[in-house]
Amino acid sequence: MKVDVKICGLTRVEDIKACDALGARWVGLVFHPASPRFISPECAAALHAAVPPPAQGGPLRVGLFVRPTYMDVLTILRHVPLDILQLYTDENTAIHLKNTTGKQVWLARGISNKEDLPHSTAMDGYVIEAPAQTGDNRPGGLGRSFDWKLTDQWHAPAPWLLAGGLTPDNVAKAVFTSKTRAVDVSSGVEDSPGIKSTAKIRAFIKNSQKGACATFK
Ligand SMILES: O=C(O)c1ccccc1N[C@@H]1O[C@H](COP(=O)(O)O)[C@@H](O)[C@H]1O
């Protein structure tokens, strides 16, 4: 049993090529201006063009938006044919954007306790991470983890990714503790904000599979 990996916050062609070569299932492009990983639609188009499309074995393209309007998403989709929208918004807005764009939608959820975990949904998936805190200028990409034990008995209503504070050093333990089948990382595989490290991506993917082997025998 394998754990699927998303590498988020790509800003450079060489980094998205490394993700493709190393077998990341998803690559994330951040369209939130407050993020150090924010990219323009033109940059996103260049990154998209640098690796094979999913139909030819390339990674699925995930676009990350914080409280977007329909026009925000449409503007990006005119430049890049994203496969999935990762949204930081309320569930009604997410359903509206799913219906109007025809794209798959993952809703990001900050989790403080088991009651925060969803049990039924119209979403295609969830990104489960640490809750935002007062003073944060963005709701993710902060290298902050949460209690991975909260998800180990969860009967998730849709596929989900574990995110927040994952690194090459802790991802195997995170998989084992949370029982997740997919992991999502941004700051944990960077040399500096927005600048990915190929060596860290390689180690992260390798160690996530070690966690999968120990968990799903
Ligand atoms: O990466 C960002 O800058 C970002 C900005 C706004 C919302 C989410 C963001 N990143 C996502 O946050 C999680 C965890 O990131 P990290 O590994 O702790 O740095 C992940 O889903 C990123 O896609």
Helical amount: 25-40%
Q: What's the β-strand tally?
A: 10
The appropriate CATH architecture is Alpha-Beta Barrel
- The rounded distance between the terminal residues' Cα atoms is 7 Å
Give me the CATH superfamily.
Answer: Aldolase class I
The main sheet orders its strands as 1-2-3-4-5-6-7-8
Radius of gyration: 16 Å
Structural class: alpha/beta
Sheet of most strands: 8 strands, parallel, barrel
**Mean pLDDT over all positions:** 96
List segments where confidence is low: pLDDT < 50 over at least 5 consecutive residues: none
What is the CATH fold-level name?
TIM Barrel
Put the structure in a nutshell.
The protein is an alpha/beta fold and 217 residues long.
Describe, in plain words, how this protein is organized in 3D.
By secondary structure, this protein is an alpha/beta fold. The protein has a single domain (4-215), classed as TIM Barrel. 30% of the residues lie in helices and 21% in strands. The chain has six helices and ten strands; from the N terminus they run E-H-E-H-E-H-E-H-E-E-E-H-E-E-E-H. The strands form two sheets. It has an eight-stranded parallel barrel with strand order 1-2-3-4-5-6-7-8, surrounded by four helices. The chain has a two-stranded antiparallel ribbon with strand order 9-10. Helix 1 (13-22) runs parallel beside helix 6 (198-215) and helix 5 packs parallel to helix 6 (198-215). The longest helix is centred in the C-terminal third of the chain and has 18 residues, at 198-215. The protein is globular. The mean pLDDT is 96. Bound molecules: the ligand O=C(O)c1ccccc1N[C@@H]1O[C@H](COP(=O)(O)O)[C@@H](O)[C@H]1O. Residues 8-9, 28, 30, 32, 35, 37, 64, 66, 88, 127, 129, 138-144, 163-166, 184-188 line the site of ligand LGQLAAA5. The ligand O=C(O)c1ccccc1N[C@@H]1O[C@H](COP(=O)(O)O)[C@@H](O)[C@H]1O binds next to strand 2, strand 3, strand 6 and strand 8. Keywords: Amino-acid biosynthesis, Aromatic amino acid biosynthesis, Isomerase, Tryptophan biosynthesis. It catalyses: N-(5-phospho-beta-D-ribosyl)anthranilate = 1-(2-carboxyphenylamino)-1-deoxy-D-ribulose 5-phosphate.
